[in-house]
Amino acid sequence: MAAIASMNVAPVRAFNGLKGEQSAKAAFKVTNGFKTSAMMVWTPVDNKFFETMSYLPPLTNEEISRQVTYITSNGWTPCLEFSESDMAYTINHGPDGIVSSASCGYYSNRYWTMWKLPMFGCTDSSQVLAEVAKCSMAFPNAYVRIAGFDNVKQVQCASFLVYRPIGGAAKAVNARSV
C-alpha cells in the first residue's frame, strides 16, 4: 500500500469534451457516412447468389485475374466448377421435405461438376480465364465458379462466381434491392 502511495500518479479529472476546432455538438455526432434513408432492402424473390462476391456487379476479366493471382500467391490450386441453374441451388426437395441447411448435416448442391482437373501448379491467371471462357461456351446455361484449394489443409479456401447464364436466376444489379 505504501509503495502505491509513493508513486507519481496523475490525478483523475472529469472529461470536458474534445478541444480544438471541433465543437461539442460535432464531437457527439455518430454516423456511418450515410443517411438511413439511403439504405436499401435486399430483394429475396428471384435473387439467387453464390458466395460473397456474387453480390457485387459482375467481375471484369481484370478483377477475376487479380482474384486468381491471390489464390495462386497463397499456394492454392485454382479449379473451375459449373452447374446448371436447376442444380446450382436448392429450391425444394419435393414431397420428402428434406431441409437443405449446412447445420442439419445435409446440404444439397454444394458440390458442382468439376471442369477438367484442378489446375495444379498454375500460376498464370490468363490460363484460368481461358478455361472459364471454354467452360462457359461449352455450357452456356450453367453457372461457373472458380475455387481455390489448399493442398496442405485439404480444404477449399476461396470460391467465387465468374459466369452467370444469360437470363439466370439473379436480378439485374440495379434491381437487387428496393
Automatic annotation (TrEMBL):
Presence of the UniProt keyword Oxidoreductase in the record: no
Q: Which GO terms describe its cellular component?
A: chloroplast
One BP annotation, GO: photorespiration
Q: Which domain of life, per UniProt?
A: Eukaryota
Sequence intervals crossing the membrane? none
Listed Pfam families: RuBisCO_small (PF00101)
Q: Does the keyword Iron apply?
A: no
Q: Which GO terms describe its molecular function?
A: ribulose-bisphosphate carboxylase activity
Sorted alphabetically, which keywords does the UniProt record give?
Calvin cycle, Carbon dioxide fixation, Chloroplast, Photorespiration, Photosynthesis, Plastid
Q: Which SMART domains match?
A: RuBisCO_small (SM00961)
Ranges where the Ribulose bisphosphate carboxylase small subunit domain occurs: 49-165
Quote the subcellular location field of this record.
Plastid, Chloroplast
In terms of PANTHER family, this protein maps to:
RIBULOSE BISPHOSPHATE CARBOXYLASE SMALL CHAIN 1, CHLOROPLASTIC, RIBULOSE BISPHOSPHATE CARBOXYLASE SMALL SUBUNIT, CHLOROPLASTIC 1
Query: Subunit composition?
Result: Heterohexadecamer of 8 large and 8 small subunits.
Entry's family note: Belongs to the RuBisCO small chain family.
Q: Give the free-text miscellaneous remark of the entry.
A: The basic functional RuBisCO is composed of a large chain homodimer in a 'head-to-tail' conformation. In form I RuBisCO this homodimer is arranged in a barrel-like tetramer with the small subunits forming a tetrameric 'cap' on each end of the 'barrel'.
* Main function: RuBisCO catalyzes two reactions: the carboxylation of D-ribulose 1,5-bisphosphate, the primary event in carbon dioxide fixation, as well as the oxidative fragmentation of the pentose substrate. Both reactions occur simultaneously and in competition at the same active site. Although the small subunit is not catalytic it is essential for maximal activity.
This chain belongs to the protein called Ribulose bisphosphate carboxylase small subunit, chloroplastic
